[in-house]
Amino acid sequence: MMNNYDLQKDFLPVGSIVKIRFDYDKLMIIGYCTVEKGTNKVFDYCAVRYPFGFIGNDKFVMFNKDVVKKVIQLGYESDEQKDFIELINKNIKDGKLIKYDEKGDKIDEWCTITNRFSV
Q: Where does residue 2 fall: left (phi above 0), alpha (psi -120 to 50 degrees), or beta otherwise?
């Protein structure tokens, strides 16, 4: 089933374990389209180091699809997950990426998207 993913174009499911260039650790994907506060740079993925998981707010790793060199384990796939990825891709295409205001608070566009999925 991993053969269905183009690592340069497709979003992997949350929970996927990957290795990226320039990092020796395994990473577990926990989110998509994360904005780095201060720079407003948008990254495709947000991850935590595997097997440690979340150990603090400053311990996230943000990266883009183009640095994924290997998928070790694919995360859980479901119709709900596929619908969510489709919605992310539509919003990226429509230019409605996650946005922050000048205080660093999320703007409602992304909240509206995630609320449809009971996040």
A: alpha
57 C-beta neighbours (distance < 10 Å), count: 6
What integer is the mean pLDDT of 46-66?
87
Task: Map out the domains of the chain as residue ranges.
Answer: 2-115
Q: Is there a contact between 27 and 47 (Cβ–Cβ < 8 Å)?
A: yes
Of residues 23, 107, 115, the one with CA closest to residue 60: 23
Q: Is the pLDDT of residue 97 over 70?
A: no
pLDDT over threshold 70, residue 112? no
At residue 14's C-alpha, the angle toward residues 11 and 16, to 5°, is 85
Residue 115 CB coordination number (10 Å): 10
pLDDT at residue 79 in the model: 93
Q: How confident is the model at residue 99 (pLDDT cuts 50, 70, 90)?
A: low
Residue 12 near residue 74 (C-beta atoms within 8 A): yes
